[in-house]
Design goal:
Pathway: Amino-acid biosynthesis; L-lysine biosynthesis via DAP pathway; L-lysine from DL-2,6-diaminopimelate: step 1/1. By secondary structure, the protein is α/β, with parallel strands linked by helices. Helix content is 30%, strand content 23%. It is built from 12 helices and 18 strands. Strands 1, 11, 12, 13, 14, 15, 16, 17 and 18 form a 9-stranded mixed sheet that branches. The radius of gyration is 23 Å and the shape is globular.
Amino acid sequence: MTNKELLSVAEEFGSPVYVYDAEKIISQYNRLTSAFKVNELRIHYAVKALSNISILKLLNSLGCGLDTVSVQEVKLGLEAGVDPSKIIYTPNGVSLEEIEEVMHLGAQINIDNLSILEQFGSRHPKVPVCIRINPHVMAGGNSKISVGHIDSKFGISIHQMPHLLRIVENTGMRINGIHMHTGSDILDIGVFLYASEILFETAQQFKDLEFIDFGSGFKVPYREGDIETDIEDLGKQLTKKFEVFCKSYGKEVALVFEPGKYLVSEAGKFLAKVNVIKQTTSTVFAGIDTGFNHLIRPMFYGAHHDIENISNPDAKTRYYSVVGYICETDTFGNNRQISEIREGDLLCFSNAGAYCYSMASNFNSRYRPPEVLWYKGKAHLIRERETFEDLTRHQHILEF
């Protein structure tokens, strides 16, 4: 999308606004599927990254399945027309009742703790189940997104395999998949290759597997010249290891990945208008018409989003701290070198496709922004801006 096109979106739909480039999503999907030359590759998009139904429909049209973590995400997938057999459900800490609800919807169940595994297996031994293993591999760009280490709440420890196998034997349940996910923003493909050895060794203990799921966590570039996961190199090396495993296992199984950020992060732009330029004794603040209620990642993870002044891109650069309108510390970037910003200019945040709108809130009673999909050279509104009625819709107001 060009600056002119982005400015036209803000003019038509106002600011702040999220804009997603369909072509970028498609190209990322094609790049990933081209990297792995295996007998059967399945891509399950991680819905939690960006759950708009139009995005799910776009990915479904490409042949992509879904990775879900709640019954609500499963239902969104079904609403988008995704076949339930192409939806994998990997909850954490949910009730048995929710898992059974998803079971009745037809999605693939993935269980990550021994208690629920035993309960589910005892009640539904004929329903095939995938098991999420914790390989005890520390990986990820931030401690809050590293989920495969020994102290993680996710997965069944590889050291609990004897107990796990005993549950499977006692219940007579069938395990049709093995799964792991070590973290997000993984740069070193050696992490995947090392963890693959653990997963392949674990998989040999189950004789009815249909797939092996490596989760995801591929790192995307956040700024110009930034490094990223080398998908092509990972594809070559992991494909070889996977072929060796299938040969020793005695049959072909599917190789599964669950990318979220990798597919949608770079496709997203977040547009916000500058309300005020505020000069203090040490800092020049650019105060914009949004806050961490709409884009929490910088304050939550310390995440970096490139910020560009698309209203005045060719001007001399100055240093600004870009801040929001929330009544708390609310900083998107400190001392950023940006083309001279004037009140009324439009700023564009990059990498706004993943974990941005999906983590937005109504903090300070602000409305959540609209979402727009740029598809075939045209802007399509795929979610309306909230209104005051949305804030009060589910409140029961008492009279005093």
